[in-house]
Write a structure and sequence with these properties.
Elements: E1 17-21, E2 25-31, E3 41-48, E4 59-60, E5 65-71, E6 74-78, E7 81-85, E8 90-93, E9 102-106, E10 112-119, E11 123-128, E12 133-139, E13 145-151
Antiparallel strand pairs: 1-2, 2-3, 3-10, 4-11, 5-8, 5-10, 6-7, 6-9, 11-12, 12-13
Organism: Ensifer oleiphilus
InterPro entries: Cupin_2 (IPR013096), GPI/OXD (IPR051610), RmlC-like_jellyroll (IPR014710), RmlC_Cupin_sf (IPR011051)
Pfam families: Cupin_2
């Protein structure tokens, strides 16, 4: 925990980062697990405007996620299904293949506010079924991103490609 931080945080006191990508992805959010002294558990808070999503449809191979809806209404796209969600709903996103792919879409008229909680694996692979991408990343023991690569299977190289003597 940072010197001035308590083991308690209220979302209304968080400084949020605002970002957007294209016409569908937008959020005001922040991560704050480290401020609570957590090393192996990621915690975040997000506010997604009406008609937007805070992330692409994706699945994790290692990490698990949990979302708690605080305010607003939305659709939880999970695998091939879509579920209406609202305040008090708790959403699970276990590790797996495309059958556990997920994202939240704000289908209401006010910002969709939620907590996100996830395991923090040292190494993770994510797939993005809508776009055919994958993402590989590693983290240091302190949770900082060490390596990240995003690509598509057709851009793969042979295991021995570029090695000396080959």
């Amino acid at each position: 925990m940072a010197d001035n931080d308590k083991p308690i945080i209220n979302p209304r006191d968080l400084a949020l980062d605002h970002w957007s990508e294209g016409t569908f992805f937008e959020s005001r959010d922040t991560s704050f697990g480290k401020r609570l002294g957590l090393k192996d558990l990621g915690v975040g808070y997000g506010e997604v405007p009406p008609g937007k999503s805070g992330c692409p449809f994706h699945n994790h191979h290692v990490e698990e996620e949990l979302f708690i809806i605080i305010e607003g209404e939305g659709t939880y796209r999970f695998g091939t299904e879509r579920y209406a969600v609202g305040p008090g709903d708790i959403l699970g996103a276990p590790a797996g293949g495309p059958e556990t792919a997920h994202h939240l879409i704000n289908t209401g008229t006010v910002p969709l506010k939620y907590l996100s909680i996830s395991t923090m694996a040292a190494t993770e692979i994510c797939e993005y079924p809508d776009s055919g991408k994958f993402d590989a990343r590693t983290r240091t023991a302190a949770g900082e991103r060490r390596f990240q690569f995003t690509g598509r299977p057709e851009s793969a190289v042979d295991y021995w490609d570029g090695e000396p003597g080959i």
